[in-house]
Amino acid sequence: MDGHEPVTGVSSGPTPSAATRFRFSVGAVFVLPALALYLGFTILPLVAVFTFSAFHWQGLRLAGFDALANYLRLLAPSMLRQEIARAFFNNCIFFLGTVVLQNSLALGLALLLHTQRRWRAFFRTVIAVPFLVNPLVVGYVWTLLLSPTFGPIAAGLEAVGAGAAIRPWLGDPDWVRPLVILINAWQWTGFPTLVFGAALAAIPEEIFQAALLERASRLQVLRAITLPLMMPTLGAMVVITFVSCFNAFNLQYAVGGVNGAPAGANDVLGLVFYRVAFGGDLNAIGASSALATGTFVFTFAATILLRHMLARLEERVT
Amino acid sequence: MRRRTLLGTIAGAAFANADLTRAARAQSAGITLNVWSWQVVQAPIYQKIFEIYERETPGVRIAYRGIASTEYPTVLKTGLSGPGGPDLVMLHPYKSIAPYVRAGQLAPLDEAGIAEVKNFSPESLAAARLDGKLWGLPFARQTIQIFYSRKLFAQLGVVPPTTADQMAPLLDKIAAAGITPIAATGKDAWQLVNVFDALVGNTYGGKAFIAKILAGTATFTDPAMVAALAEFQGLAKYFPKFVSGVSNADARAMFATGRAAMFPGGSWELAGFQNAGMGADVGVFSMPAAQGNPGGHAPTWGYEDGSLGISARAAQPAAALALLRWMATRQFGQAFTDQLKQPSSVSGVVATDPTLSQMSANYAANPVPMIWVTDYFGLASPAPYAALMNAAQNLLTSATTPAAAAASIAQSVVEWTAMNQ
């Protein structure tokens, strides 16, 4: 209730409907700029891409309505479908590796930093620095570091008599996937560390003290108090990781180029989209829009499903 | 459409000879012509070359804009549609012009009315032809050959091969001396297409095989192509150690620092080697053909790097055409070759750099079009260009066999043809 609400039936002030209209008008004034930006920069491009996918294009010229033909072309047995399937698989591997490695590492670091008060700010900054760097730069730097010919890692191994351990690394299909997950974790671990640190700080200290009075071990505190109370944050981080891994492009592009080298082992849906959109296809707009729409629908649906599963898990744990 | 018709009329009627070109130059006083290109770092050099034209054509100012090659197709598509776009545009070669042509964004050139067309060979002009019309005039050609270190060759007492059977002993002798014979990348797939044609193009048959492919009387699963892919895989032992992880920058550095004796690559690499301290130490040759070299000239692979076309929305079409015609003269071609160190497409231009001049002469003597670029270019699957990249990388990591690699290229041709019909 605010001061504008009439207390009696006396019509001495604004009527309820007038007050509501006034509040709505004021609210609209504040909301409209953000709504316009949201509609203009988020919804409109999505609708445009969906619309483009229903047409056949010749360059920038509309060549006719195509209904679902662009989607059927992506699904028809072809080398492109094989590439999409391989890229999708790589995205899944990238997500699984990242969610396990990056978030576990971040949780461990956040717990460590939570107990270290003296150097906490310093280490938080150190851990966070890599994610301030552009992923393209990170990929390029690691390409140089991991060069088997001129790279310092290979030179270091050679110097200590471990030259036999040198591999083609980023040029080896078996090595490139785990290495890209590691490089990505190296860059991004700082972000979940900060988020988990904030979540830990929000847990009342009294709960931990009560547990200690009950002679609970550190592991018991972690399992029974810390993790359950951090579940909403952990769940949100899993969803963020999922979305970022299915929108991956920069790092894979820097490491393996536009074709996801070596021989597609590093290919992801973002790179396939890039090739379809800019690869010289006359109908590039139609085909790439269909691929973008398909990827968006999958990511959106999977995110909702993931959120739902995590919410149920959260209920069970807490 | 009205603009295109107007431009066509102007192109056909007003520019029949050089006198009229001068007249058009005089009429075009007080205007700015916008030239868009994907060559960013070369912008100061282009601007310097354009100063010659600006001096000769008072009142005309040329604004050169270099746009990063990765963004160029996108920027160009929108730039050619709206206001404030370019007058002259650098176009990628062959079928890459199709999206702009089909969208009516380029003005066709009237060949009969442009005397400078005769300054280009039919092979060069093929890079700017589509649907029976000419859409641009070529500016540079690239040729793929094998660079070698004269100093290392002299130290080892070897010379470039003149017959195909001299190659294997040459490679073995270099390897025995503890030097990597061929600096090739295995990581940067785009360069593998060049490495493939430079080293084993003769094995699949060069010009004769390409003619059969285009005529539909041969496919990429023919024994000749399988043999070429097998030979490429066999040559991997002469490539750098851990080749699949070696980038093209690493391969370049190996050659420039004397750790490797040869580097198969394009003419655009020459200036880099010379500037890296090799200077006149860089030599060049083309791989001799086993079946013999016609006229003593080894087949040499190459392609046009692109052409310059006129926007259908050019604000000053007559002045734009006048500038384009100047860029097709020997005066521009010579300045282009001398200052940008790239082989000009204009006939008769001789590079002052002796190595670049030799590269041009090798290509002119027995040119073979790189079919991957001239007819099958595309980064997206099912482009055969992309299929060869992946096949070559898989061969280097033994993830496929030559026969399977050939089958994947052939399949990409089938799908590419269906998609582009």
What would you note in describing this structure?
By secondary structure, chain A is mainly alpha-helical. Chain A folds into two domains: 16-52, no CATH class; 69-317, Orthogonal Bundle (MetI-like fold), CATH 1.10.3720. Chain A is 71% helix and 3% strand. Chain A contains 13 helices and two strands. Chain A has helices at 16-52, 69-75, 79-115, 120-128, 135-145, 152-159, 173-188, 190-201, 205-213, 218-246, 250-256, 269-278, 284-317; strands at residues 55-58, 61-65. Residues 1-11 of chain A have low confidence and may be disordered. Chain B has 421 residues and is of the alpha/beta class. Chain B has two domains: 2-139 and 305-350, Periplasmic binding protein-like II (D-Maltodextrin-Binding Protein, domain 2, 3-Layer(aba) Sandwich), CATH 3.40.190; 142-302 and 356-419, Periplasmic binding protein-like II (D-Maltodextrin-Binding Protein, domain 2). Chain B contains 19 helices and twelve strands. Chain B has helices spanning 2-14, 18-27, 43-56, 72-79, 98-102, 122-125, 150-156, 167-176, 189-204, 206-215, 223-235, 248-256, 270-278, 317-326, 330-340, 354-365, 371-374, 384-396, 402-420, and strands at 31-37, 60-66, 88-91, 106-107, 129-130, 133-134, 137-149, 180-182, 260-266, 282-285, 300-311, 367-369. In chain B, strands 1, 2, 3, 4, 7, 8, 9, 10, 11 and 12 form a ten-stranded mixed beta sheet that branches. A two-stranded antiparallel sheet of chain B has the order 5-6. In chain B, helix 11 (223-235) crosses helix 19 (402-420). Chain B starts with a helix and ends with a helix. At the A-B interface, helix 3 and helix 12 of A face helix 4, helix 5, helix 12, helix 18 and helix 19 of B.
